[in-house]
Design goal:
Interferon-inducible GTPase 1, about 55% helix, membrane, two-stranded antiparallel ribbon, about 10% strand, GTP binding, nucleotide-binding
Length: about 400
Amino acid sequence: MASDFVGDDEWVNVEMEELQREIDESGVAKIDEFVRKRLQQWESVEVNIAVAGDSGAGKSSFTNAIREICDEDEGAADVTESTTEPTPYAHPTNSNIKFWDLPGIGTPDYPDLETYVEKVQLEKYDAFLILTATRFTKNDLLLAEKIRSMQKSFFFIRTKIDENVRAEKRKQSYDEKAMLTKIRSNCLKNLGDHFSNVKDVFLISNHEPDKWDFARLAQAILDALPKYQRQSLTLSLGKAITRSSEEIFQGKLDALKGRIWWIAAASAAGALVPIPGLSVGVDAALILRELSLYRSQLGLPEVGSAEFVKLHLATREKVLQVSITTVAQLSVFLVSYTTEATIEEAVRFIPFVGLLVASTMSFGATYYALHKLLEAVKDVALLVIKEATDKAASELDSKMD
């Protein structure tokens, strides 16, 4: 049964090292409190992303698109008014993640870079996105140089690619790939010698974030953030971006897998519910909450929703199988997939468990069950994504015919 856990060694070692440090500093008695705080940590980490560029670059539309909200939704950035001061827009599912719409340099309130740096407080942002709908200006490059001198991450982004594609399609010699290559090359040339080390410009459409470089940009931002900020933003990205990027999907999967050890430890220390057919109890409410997180994070539609109803019957049945919401349903799953032998193997796989939690068998049952539940949700999520992709391709073929 050890093969069920092959591949977990790296993240288990990292988490165990963190826990061992806590034991050394505070002792075993406070482990329960530490574990529960650790589980909530991703929701309390602050992430501040600056969105810069001249008026008309699409900053407000981008701020809405990355948060997956419509321009008319509550909390949306105003796409009709120019920004006159740094304005934060919180992520709808995590208010500690904010995208800041910054004013442009060269306006009456921000006539030069020195004034801009002082008023905008560049030091408080974790990463910078510099947008243009045409070509990067001298002020864009001055700002980028300042950010680079502060050793902060920044990305050059060319927006409104959908408009370029529509215009290009009117030509008899339409070649989207060649057009995108030309735009990217022109942007890099526009950056000049001062940014010769910049090898990429992200080409995006704020109205079609499932196309071109939007998801790749999201991943690049994630890669530039420290561990806990990266985890926080990863678990806050919405369904559309998650579905359009294998890398982001895998990142979410890894983040959720990294929580299993902590959930198992918290479950063993919680209110245990006996499971008929197994001589072990678990914190069923905690497991059910985590399973709900799996479904939402990996993009499964809610049972009964419009998206759910449109799925093929076989896919709907798969979604229902992992839509476990009651203790009775959870018990059936645990008995079906968990035996005392697998529980004992899970306990043996994790070093020091007996020293950290009072109920090692409960830990093992939870640890093993969550692995199986996450794997099941992942498989169904990939099925849902494939069906959506196939449907979109079919509709595109129909339009071309």
